[in-house]
Amino acid sequence: MRTAQVLHLPGTEVSLQLEIDRLRHQLQIIQIKLDEMIHIHQQQIDKVISVFVRGQYRMVHVSEIQMIKAMNNYSMIYLDGGAELMTSRTLKYWEKQCACDDLVRVHNSFLIHKHKITAIQPDDCTIALRNGLTAQYTRKSKTCLLLLLGQKDRTQEPKTPKSALHPLV
Asked: Is the pTM of this model over 0.85?
């Protein structure tokens, strides 16, 4: 954010009016940018996608999605409440359609909602979600996943040298 500037205003009334007009114009530009940012944020929150299932279109809020699982050229969308929607679209297609920061690609076959994670099992690289759903994650995406959740990856921390653990006596 910019700091306030000290203005050295000349004493004439005309120059003072010009400075007021310039500042008013800057304020209008800032208001327009702020309105755009608010609009983009509201679109992400209220994002709705259209899913074609069994001959009809169903409107789904992105916030309802727990996970999307790829199955060759099909995808299974798992929703809150246990509903499952089989679609003839790829996971890449749904990733572009949703375009939401809350949905994270953790594997070639899984797109998950990061706020619906209940547990991460590092032993077998699985993520537990609500309603008993599980998804695989890759070791490559583990660091990004832990950063999203606000945790550190302990495998990336520098190790204590052995000399510090077993000093010579």
From this structure: no
